[in-house]
Amino acid sequence: MTSEGEGQAATVPKRRLSCKTCIDNLWFCYSPVHQMQQYYRLGVLDNCADKWSSLLDCLSLKTKRSSEVQEILENREKDKPHIWTFRTSEESSSHWKEVFGHLDDME
What we know:
By secondary structure, the protein is an all-alpha fold. Helix content is 68%, strand content 0%.
């Protein structure tokens, strides 16, 4: 049997903060493969500024207490926009006609 405190700890997983992925992303950003992909797709080389900022953000989080880090990560998770947009059938119908209505006029 588990005690009540252990059950609560099992339901809320503690996140471990690791900057390894940020370092890996930064390293890959400067690789010739990534730079050539960016040049082919966008016509410019990547300056990797977003990778640097995410690494510095991760390192700054490492200096905080674990309770603060958990709170910050939970708030960031809540602030992320949801991947799906839910619509009613009327909203979806009007959106469909707005986006693809011109195809009906071709016939």
